[in-house]
Amino acid sequence: MVEVKFCENNFVHGVEEVITKLQENNENAKVIVESCLGYCGDCAEGPYALVNDELVQADSADELYEAICEIIG
After folding, report:
1. CA 46 to CA 41: how far, in whole Å?
2. 4-43 burial string, b = 16+ CB within 10 Å, else e?
3. Other Cβ atoms closer than 10 A to 2
4. Taking 90 as the threshold, does the pLDDT of residue 50 lie above it?
């Protein structure tokens, strides 16, 4: 199972929609939301997630979702 972590502070960039889509469409993804992941500089710049503890960034929430889906298959 792939672990995908999101920061609550990054919700301002639309990642709530990404979380919902992952939970509905990807059974092999364990979605975790934490209060802070320690990537404050990246968090302020745009949407991101940690996929198996690897940073994945994108310019938009939709692009982040696509990037995560490519990784988790």
Report:
1. 9
2. bbbbebbbebebeebbebbeeebeebebeeeeebebeeeb
3. 15
4. yes
